[in-house]
């Protein structure tokens, strides 16, 4: 069962500025929240008490007491590590950092799972599975995931056209048909070139699927379907790792959905893997 803390993190990117301030305060002071009334929380943030109440209700709680109880339960669960043994005293700092990273990755993956329920993955998988051609694009670090997914889709027998250059992809999209799909990767969804590609695809009457953070952004606004990532940490070097980990887990779920729902794809993947093994054996001989 997802904890209130995970829900806060997963919804943060969709919040207004005031809501993010409330969420960040709660996340940073979760252990102390039980001592705060809604008015004290409002005073600490310099906002109205009604803003706190509306925030709680927007997240699906009846009011502040329900949110505070859920946060307290989440803190207790986290302190007990859900039954996972605590690291022994004297554990080297490197090992402790590794454990913390694993924990934060797990939280990011759970938050991302929350905002991409099974129905969403099924719908996206059906769109990709029925596409004539899937055009896949990503720039910079986003291309790492775009390239890997393009390979996986090809292994399933799904025709893909991958490119990290907007100009080349524009040329490719000129031949797009109404049953084709543009799958665009962009963490923040702000690259004008990708927005232009999405508009081009819509003009061709094809479909657009975007993969971005769980935030309001220009690219996401142009999408017919979206895959979203929730990954937050005050340490920028850690937040980047969380984003890529959560995104990879999301794409793995999508791949499995595509694989399991079509016998022809399963057979195609098996044939491809056997062929690759044979090629590797020849190289080693």
UniProtKB/TrEMBL annotation:
Limits of the SIS domain: 124-256
Domain HTH rpiR-type: 2-78
PANTHER family, alphabetized: GLUCOKINASE, HTH-TYPE TRANSCRIPTIONAL REGULATOR MURR
Name of the protein: MurR/RpiR family transcriptional regulator
Gene3D superfamilies, A to Z: Glucose-6-phosphate isomerase like protein, domain 1, Winged helix-like DNA-binding domain superfamily/Winged helix DNA-binding domain
InterPro entries: Homeodomain-like_sf, HTH_RpiR, RpiR-like, RpiR-like_SIS, SIS_dom, SIS_dom_sf, WH-like_DNA-bd_sf
Keyword tRNA processing: no
Keywords: DNA-binding, Transcription, Transcription regulation
Keyword DNA-binding among record annotations: yes
CDD domains reported for this sequence: SIS_RpiR
Source species: Thermomonas beijingensis
Span of the signal peptide: none
Source organism phylogeny: Bacteria, Pseudomonadati, Pseudomonadota, Gammaproteobacteria, Lysobacterales
């Amino acid at each position: 069962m997802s904890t209130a803390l995970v829900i806060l993190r997963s919804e943060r990117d969709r919040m207004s500025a005031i809501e993010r301030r409330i969420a960040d305060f709660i996340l940073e002071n979760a252990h102390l929240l039980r001592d705060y009334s809604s008015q004290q929380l409002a005073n600490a943030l310099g906002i109205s008490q009604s803003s706190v109440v509306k925030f709680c209700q927007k997240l699906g709680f009846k009011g502040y007491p329900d949110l505070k109880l859920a946060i307290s339960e989440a803190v207790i669960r986290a302190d007990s590590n859900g039954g996972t043994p605590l690291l022994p005293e004297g554990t080297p700092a490197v090992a402790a950092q590794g454990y913390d990273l694993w924990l934060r990755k797990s939280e990011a993956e759970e938050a991302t799972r929350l905002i991409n329920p099974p129905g969403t993955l099924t719908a996206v998988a059906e769109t990709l599975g029925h596409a004539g051609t899937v055009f896949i694009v990503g720039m910079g670090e986003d291309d790492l995931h775009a390239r890997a997914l393009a390979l996986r889709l090809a292994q399933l027998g799904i025709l893909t056209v991958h490119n990290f250059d907007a100009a080349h992809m524009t040329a490719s999209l000129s031949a797009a048909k109404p049953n084709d799909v543009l799958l665009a990767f962009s963490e923040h969804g702000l690259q004008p070139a990708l927005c232009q590609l999405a508009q081009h695809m819509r003009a061709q009457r094809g479909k657009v699927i975007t993969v971005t953070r769980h935030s309001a952004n220009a690219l996401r606004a142009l999408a017919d379907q979206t895959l979203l990532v929730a990954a937050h940490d005050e340490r920028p070097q850690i937040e980047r790792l969380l984003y890529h980990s959560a995104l990879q887990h999301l794409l793995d779920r999508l791949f499995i959905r595509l694989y399991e729902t079509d016998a022809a794809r399963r057979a195609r993947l098996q044939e491809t893997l056997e062929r690759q093994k044979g090629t590797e054996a020849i190289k080693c001989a």
